[in-house]
Amino acid sequence: xxxxSILFIVFLVIVGIQLIYYLAFLFSFSIQREETKPxxxxxxxxxxxxxxxxxxxxxxxxxxxxxxxxxFEVVLVxxxxxxxxxxxMAQFKxxxxxxxxxxxxxxxxxWGNKKYAxxxxxxxxSHDFLVFTDADCKPNSNDWLAEVSSKFSNQKAIVLxxxxxxxxxxxxxNALIRFETITxxxxxxxxxxxxxxxxxxxxxxxxxxxxxxNNNGFNSxxxxxxxxxxxxxxxxANAKNTDIIVTKESFTISEPKNSFKDWVLQKRRxxxxxxxxxxxxxxxxxxxxxxxxxxxxxxxTLVVLSFKIQWILAVIALRFTIQLLxxxxxxxxxxxxxxxxxxxxxEIFLVSSQLSIFIANLISTPKHWK
Length: 370
Description:
Blueprint: H1 3-30, E1 44-50, H2 54-65, E2 72-79, H3 85-95, E3 99-104, H4 114-124, E4 129-134, E5 137-139, H5 144-149, E6 158-160, E7 163-165, H6 172-193, E8 205-208, H7 209-214, H8 230-236, E9 242-244, E10 252-254, H9 260-271, H10 279-305, H11 309-333, H12 343-363
């Protein structure tokens, strides 16, 4: 058997793996309708940890305070900011009785550790149901809290939401960020639907306070600077206690990074936590990424070699058809269908960037959350 024949067989196996993944995602999340549940007005504590976020708080906090929800407090955690973050918090507190401020001073043991600041914020909260977002996020509607809280029940103690990024025309970086965000959301929502939840995003997620303390909070990974959202969810989430919310009213919207360098630094922090996931999650996520990378490498190689070119093109077309169907239905559900026809190009950029980020993290790991 020739070397190119072996490459062809490996390529078919890789495409088979990809198709199995995409079909699993397709049927578990993409084509399922959102289940509408009655709104609940259970008491909520919104936790926002901010470090040098004075401008973002001034811009976004009013949207949170305008929520059409009868019983909620906002716990603002100032994580040793060097700008006017604390002063902005105090101004909002002066005119809003449902705001609490937790001022975290520099601590040599926990310096630069968001988890320490978040823990103090959680301890200061009054209610058993906690909703998390960031200072640079704003709710997509005044029903954000009502939508998120509707998913809580006696069994469901974790609610995973979607944190979108605002759209900017004629920006490849913006398109890449949104594509990566949708792809990641497709995975963690689908995995949750399949009964193996592995992460959430701190821009939009919620869980019960008692779940945090019953699992000793962030203690098992306090020394890891990132992962206050995904590592905690990876540790405590399971098929029975986790639900998702993907109505447009439940989204939060953030401003994306404006430079490729800043985005890469952000992704390096996020990616650095993946090696601490449970083994089954690392295997499944690793297999998906490796199959993506090999699909492009082997596909391009076989096309250049013109080996069984008609078969290669047919297999590639099948893979793209299933992928675009899956991504397109997800993008429609997440209100960002404009990216569908750019998906193949954006995938090449994303896979290349992820490989570069992985290699960079092998050399050095990001030390601080900001």
